[in-house]
Structures are given as C-alpha cells and as structure tokens.
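hey so i finally got around to running the thing on that chain from the lab meeting. sorry it took forever, my laptop kept dying and i had to restart like 3 times. anyway pasting the input first so we r on the same page abt which one it is
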Amino acid sequence: MILTTTHEIEGRRIERYLGIVFGEAIVGANVLRDLLAQIRDIVGGRSGAYEAELRRARETALAEMAEAARRLGADAVVGVDLDYEVLGSGNSMLMVTASGTAVKLAP
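ok and heres what got predicted. didnt touch it at all, straight out
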C-alpha cells in the first residue's frame, strides 16, 4: 500500500478515487512518565518515553487508515494528513488522526 502526502504518485495514473479514509489512535499518559518528562523539561533533554508513545500512535493511525483503504480495494492513499489533538481532563490523552484519499491506480 502506497501512502503519500502528495496528491499524485509519480509515474502512476490514478484510475479511480474510492473515498476518504481515516485511522485514529488515542494514547493515555502514564503518571510516572509524566513526572519524569516534567523533570526533563526543567533540566533539558528529550523525553524518550513520550517520543516512543507518539511514534506508536502515529504508526497505529497510519496502519488503520491503510487497512480502511485496503477494504475499499485501494492501491494507495494520497493526500495523507496527520493531526494531533490533546484530550481528556488535564490533557492526559493524545489523539493522532491520519486521513487521506483512497485511490485505485491504473495498471
């Protein structure tokens, strides 16, 4: 499955547009990890735990979007966009949404 942020695929012709597809992932924050991240914010440095969670959420959202496209018979998803939103009381959750247009490519 080809996933691209562009609206065309170089060297390939889009035969049919199948519809908009989405994938979402919501991850909750861990209290201990939050505390360690706050300490890192004060002393500087990157939060590896948060980066890993963000990467996992992004990969999950993209995989769900690709699966939705497969169910429509798509060969690719063009115009892929990723959105990030903080949710929950105390902003304790992160939602990652992937969206794009499922397409069938000409042979």
